[in-house]
Amino acid sequence: MGNAAASEALLQIETWGAVLTVGLNRPAKRNALNDGIILALQDCFSAIPDDVGAVVIHGVGDHFSSGLDLSELTERDATEGLVHSQMWHRVFDRVQYCRVPVIAALKGAVIGGGLELACAAHIRVAEPSAYFALPEGQRGIFVGGGGSVRLPRLIGVPRMMDMMLTGRVYSATEGSAYGFSQYLTEDGGALPKALELAERVAANAPLTNFAVLQALPMIAEANPQTGLLMESLMATVAQSDKEAKKRIRAFLDRKTAKVKPK
After folding, report:
1. Is 143 in the same domain as 188?
2. Do residues 42 and 170 both lie within one domain?
3. Are 118 and 230 in contact (CB under 8 A)?
4. 75 is catalytic
5. What is the C-alpha to C-alpha distance for residues 145 and 76, in angstroms, rounded to an integer?
6. Is 136 marked active-site?
7. pTM for this model (two decimals)
8. Catalytic residue among 80, 116, 127, 231
9. Residue 65: DSSP 8-state
10. Which of 62, 114, 124, 159 has a C-alpha 20 to 30 A away from that of 147?
11. Distance CA 22, CA 53 (A)
12. Structural domain for 67, as ranges
């Protein structure tokens, strides 16, 4: 089986207009992540088609992902373990630094490496069945897919420490309140909501989406004066874009609706 065919088997990839959906396709394993599916994600996120404006990543079946597939965990010395972890880092970086916004639709298990993958997305939508956990502490291992960098930025270091030390599991409702997800839907609603949001963000000006994805996180972590300068430069570049000029003119000509509460 060639690489393309193998990737297709591990990922269920479809296009809906300007939205690309990427389904983790190991439902019998609760979409546990092995090297094959990680490398398939690398191939997918390395070649996002030019006409795609947003990506939705989801799990085929009842779960998003139960994390690292422990049944395929092999003995590694320190060097091999380091290289393996950094491979996951490179792949999840491709998600976080994707050219277009990535939205994760979450249900069932979102644990371990699955939670680390979800953290690499820009928007997370959960339905009531979703639950969040980091069982690495009970397995005698440590997060290796970037979770110690990304998750504390969402929920804080003390909450992540508690999860890893005690095995605490958070429900979808708790997850929405504490920062694991930004949206909580009804049963079966995560993927439809994610698609709705993806269609909306795909319609944004590409340069604005670029600024939000690439510049905003750096500005937020910079010292204030550096951040303000970066903001000014990014605002200047964005406002000078032809697409921005067209959209501002449409607003001034009352061709687009004003912002109102829903």
Report:
1. yes
2. yes
3. no
4. no
5. 16
6. yes
7. 0.89
8. 116
9. B
10. 62
11. 14
12. 3-202
